[in-house]
Structures are given as C-alpha cells and as structure tokens.
C-alpha cells in the first residue's frame, strides 16, 4: 500500500514534468510541511509526518488532496524522508500540515502566486515558492487569514478534541453527491439521512444513532451483532466492530482495526486492535497497537482537576485545559490483559506494558514492563513482533521501517532507565 503511494507520487512527478514542458496544462505542486508543532504531536509524529495524522474520517493529507484535487508530498524530519519523500517542482505551494482545510482556505491556497503567503496569527499557513528558493517573508505580499473556520491540530490531545468537528466536515466531503448503500432492515437507525454506508460493509443487527452527528461506515467494514453506536462516528475501510460493543461519539476507528468493549471519543489511526471488553476514553491510539482483554484507562481524575500530559517539547507535564483526557499510545505499542492506565498517560513507540497496578503516566518508547518497573525493549525482539503483526495485515516490515524505528530507539534512550 505504501509502496504503491511512492510509485504514484513518482508517476505524478513524471506526468507533471512532461505536461509542463509541453506547455499544454499548468499544474501546481503542493507540499505539506510539519511546522512548529511537530514535537507537540509526538509520539504520533515519531513515525509519520504531521500530514498523515488521522482526524475525522480522513487523514489531514487526504483532506487536502480531495479538496485541492492534487496529490501532495511532505517536508518532514530527515529520518522519515525515505518513506515520505518530498516532490518539488519549479512552482510549489507549501502548506502547514497542522491546519485542517476549509473551503475558504482552499480557495485562497489555490490562488496563491509568486511572492504571496497566507498568515494566521503571525504564522505562515501557506506560501508560494520556486524550486530551491530561499524564502524571506519580508519580501512577500502577506495575506492575513480572517475567516473563523480554522481547526489547527497543535497538541496530541487535539486529535480527539476536534474529532467531532472533523468527522462532520469529512462526512460532507466524502458523501456529497453520492448514494449510500441500503441500510439492512434488521439494523436499528436514528436520523437515517446522516448515515452513509459504503459498498461491501456488513452490519446485520446493530444500532446506529446519528442524532448528535453523522455515522460513516467504510468499504468492506463490519459491525457485528448487538453493537450500539452513537455519532459522530467513522468506521474506516476493512475495520471491524466486535459483538456487543458500545461506542460513543465522536470516535474514529481507522482502517483494518478491530475494536470491542466500551469506547468514548477516541481516534484509532489504523491497523490496531482492542478486540475485547474494557474501557477506552478520550484517547488516541496509533498504528499496529494491541490492547489486551479488559484493558481500561481512566479519562477523569478523582478530584475532577485539569489533566496534565507529558510534553516531549518541554520534557515535562503540560496543562491540557481538559477535564477528560485518557491515553496517547504511539505506533507498535502493546499492553497485556487487565492493564490499567491512569488519566493522561502517554506511551511512546514500540512499548510493551503488562502486569498488575498502574504503570507510570509517561512510558518512553521501547520500554518493557509495568508498575513494578521498566527495562529496555530490545530492538531485535521488537522488530520480530512488528514483522509478524504487519504480515497478518498483508503489509511488509521493510528496511525503511526498521531504520525509522532504530532512529527512534536512539532518539528516546535518554528517557529509559535500565
């Protein structure tokens, strides 16, 4: 799948180059850059550009590509470039990837020309640049963005905080002008006009309540018998909801994920499993994660106080302004059965948590253990697991994947204590 995307980007590059040389049609090249908030979005941006965060039904990149009508590439960290290469042509528009696009912003971005930039609160959100040009905004004609329709993903908790708004926007974008597949007669529905079912979805005996927001059921997905779902809700392609699940919106279940139990206001990026009973609330889970049976997280402190969350930028615990905030789990992390997580727990990449009691509310990448203590999860063991897990979803654990995780292992070693 990812190799196909790289091939497609390369093909677009060749086509655009040919078309431009032939002077038949002019194409603008769009590049999404990580911006100043990348570190505030860790651990999820350890393994991907900001543009590939999923908020709503689609990733930020997919939103921009649908609304612009063009493919995009990224400016991101050097160690991610082989997996997420930048495609640069003679004329380029760079876009801040932490900004979720609106119609007003897309119209302005589409009309950008040489030496023009769009700013919001003294920060560039889009600008035109020639290939290899040194950008100096003092020489630019700066347009201040004045519309009040911007959603900016600045912190990792913003992913679930703004998920409801994002689902509603994506629902209109994805379903406009299209007809839903028929809703099975055995499925209980409320506010049917706000329910959209893609081809191949299976949902024989469940309840879909779209009173508070739309419900999107992706291609070849499945909602098993007895499941109760309230919108806003998105089930992406090939994902599965297990029998008897209770899901409260706004929640997104990413592609090829399997979810069960009780879930409230969560975003699951994709390829991750929580297949059994247990509660997950106000949380974000990356790719290739697995939550063991009866895993539970707290999303509210006993004293109802504001939740503080580990901040990789300051290397301390930051105020979130939220009363409800649960678990942030980076890619390839796992936890065993009956695991309990405190309010506002952050888990890095490729950690393995197990045992009784509450582990720390910051668990560094490549940690192994739990409440009783942590040791380093050796990379070769972690890579063996990643290879098996990815093969089960017909994906390959490539040499590039290995190099990215090796970099993260070294980058995060200062937080591990053996």
Furnish the topology, listing elements before pairings.
Blueprint: H1 2-22, E1 29-33, H2 60-68, E2 72-75, E3 91-96, E4 99-100, H3 103-110, E5 116-120, E6 123-130, E7 141-144, E8 151-152, H4 158-161, H5 163-175, E9 188-190, E10 195-197, E11 207-209, E12 215-217, E13 222-223, E14 228-230, E15 233-235, E16 240-241, E17 246-248, E18 251-253, E19 258-259, E20 262-270, E21 273-274, E22 279-287, E23 290-291, E24 296-297, E25 308-311, E26 316-319, E27 327-329, E28 334-335, E29 340-341, E30 345-347, E31 352-353, E32 362-363, E33 367-370, E34 373-376, H6 379-391, H7 399-411
Parallel strand pairs: 1-2, 1-3, 5-7, 9-11, 10-12, 11-14, 12-15, 13-16, 14-17, 15-18, 16-19, 17-20, 18-20, 19-21, 20-22, 22-27, 23-28, 24-29, 27-30, 28-31, 30-32, 31-33
Antiparallel strand pairs: 3-6, 4-8, 5-6, 25-26, 33-34
């Amino acid at each position: 799948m990812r190799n196909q995307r790289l091939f497609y980007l390369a093909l677009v590059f060749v086509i655009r180059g040919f078309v431009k040389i032939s002077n038949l049609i002019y194409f603008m090249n769009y590049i999404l850059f990580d911006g100043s908030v990348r570190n505030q979005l860790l651990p999820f941006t350890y393994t991907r550009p900001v543009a590939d965060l999923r908020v709503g039904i689609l990733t930020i990149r997919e939103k921009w590509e649908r609304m612009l009508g063009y493919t995009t590439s990224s400016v991101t960290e050097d160690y991610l470039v082989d997996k997420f290469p930048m495609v640069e042509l003679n004329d380029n528009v760079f876009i801040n990837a932490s900004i979720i696009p609106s119609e007003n912003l897309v119209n302005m971005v589409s009309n950008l020309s040489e030496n023009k930039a769009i700013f919001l609160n003294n920060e560039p959100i889009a600008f035109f640049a020639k290939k290899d040009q040194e950008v100096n905004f003092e020489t630019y004609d700066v347009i201040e963005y004045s519309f009040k329709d911007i959603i900016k993903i600045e912190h990792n908790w913003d992913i679930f905080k703004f998920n409801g708004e994002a689902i509603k926007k994506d629902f209109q974008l994805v379903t406009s002008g299209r007809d839903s597949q028929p809703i099975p007669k055995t499925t209980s529905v409320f506010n049917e006009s706000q329910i959209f079912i893609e081809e191949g979805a299976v949902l024989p005996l469940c309840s879909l309540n779209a009173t508070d927001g739309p419900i999107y059921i992706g291609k070849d997905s499945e909602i098993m018998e007895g499941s109760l779902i309230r919108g806003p809700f998105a089930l992406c392609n090939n994902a599965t909801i297990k029998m008897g699940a209770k899901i409260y919106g706004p929640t997104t279940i990413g592609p090829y994920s399997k979810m069960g139990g009780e879930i409230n206001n969560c975003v699951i990026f994709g390829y991750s499993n929580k297949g059994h009973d247990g509660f997950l609330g106000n949380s974000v889970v990356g790719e290739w994660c697995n939550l063991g049976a009866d895993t539970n997280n707290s999303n509210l402190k006993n004293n109802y106080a504001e939740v503080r969350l580990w901040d990789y930028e300051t290397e301390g615990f930051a105020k979130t302004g939220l009363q409800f905030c649960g678990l942030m789990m980076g890619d390839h992390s796992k936890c065993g059965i009956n695991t309990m997580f405190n309010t506002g727990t952050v888990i890095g990449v490729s950690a393995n948590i197990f045992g009784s009691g509450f582990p720390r509310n910051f668990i560094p990448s490549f940690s192994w253990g739990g409440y009783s203590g942590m040791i380093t999860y050796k990379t070769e063991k972690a890579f063996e697991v990643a290879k098996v897990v990815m093969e089960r979803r017909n994906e390959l654990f490539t040499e590039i994947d290995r190099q990215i995780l090796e970099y993260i292992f070294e980058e995060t070693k200062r937080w591990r204590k053996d």
